[in-house]
Amino acid sequence: MIMRRVTQKFLILIFGLLFTYFYCEYLIYYVVVAQCSWPTTERLIEGQYLKSFILADTHLLGPYRGHWLDKWRREFQMQQAFQAVITLHKPDVVFVLGDLFDEGEWTNEKQFQDYVDRFHKLFKLPNDIKMHVVAGNHDIGFHHNLRRFSTKRFVDKFQAPSVQHLVLKSSHFILINSMALHGDSCELCLDARHSINRISDAMNCAENVEKCNTEQVNFNYSRPIIMQHFPLYRVSDAACTEPDAPPLPERNKKFRLKIDALSKESTTFLIKKLKPRAVFGGHTHHGCKLLHTYKDLKIEFLEYSVPSFSWRNRLDPKFMLVTISPETYAVNKCGLPKEGTIILTAMIMIFALVIFISTKRTIGR
Fold first, then answer.
1. pLDDT of residue 361
2. How far apart are CA 341 and CA 57, in angstroms?
3. Is the pLDDT score of 38 beyond 80?
């Protein structure tokens, strides 16, 4: 009888520990991700809008920095979280707003290919969901450190030119390499400016069909959404009041223009040429929502800074679910499990298991 009770308690202990491990390492991501949902408004008609999953700053560690255990742990967490979002919410498209890698600018060809393979393995998608990425400074380097081969290989591996115009379910997206907006005469900057001018002309033609040759445009007009890595011009994050905004006094730290945010000149150029209805960026690792008003252009729009998706950069990583139609859009910012919550949950479950075993005399009672 005693041996039977010991065996029963041992089996309960093993089962309880396995369930605790499974819940805290796998299931908890689904539990937390399921608490967020696709936003909607009265103007969004089911089936006629694009479901967009937006994340930023995954910062996969490379060959030089960080401990292997840290690398494995953070990548495991991001993989579980990403797959939970894909499984539960089934987006139409995924946008990654730069800094996919932490050391992309320093890697040789073999190391970079290893990076690319790891990224696609961790953030694997079914064939019916497309992913679009923009370059971040950690992927190719800041403007003053750009090398032609580092930019070219990123473009080739991810089909991510400096400026890209996508039309998805009749909504327009302009994806931009922020390092190409330095405003000088570098080849990358000149190419980006030319592309933006060309897209602007096509958009203006679509908006004013009677003034243009309709053969030049094969899409209906709606104000585009800009996706990039840097924030638009701002002096600091002082105006950011989101709960996940930078803490004080970091929030009041002055931005280094062209490093922490776009310059005022580049921002004005983008706004005048593209007249966006929303702008999404990353880079700061924190959340921010700012209203921009341009009275001379008679437009205003919201800019969203998407917090980092990595637990290396935040204790509470975030992502966004955005529903988009040609006329409107709606945004939900979603959280992922906090590191402390995962640890505390495991401790509570193990404590409860020990109490249960110590007070249970037999399985049948």
1. 55
2. 22
3. yes
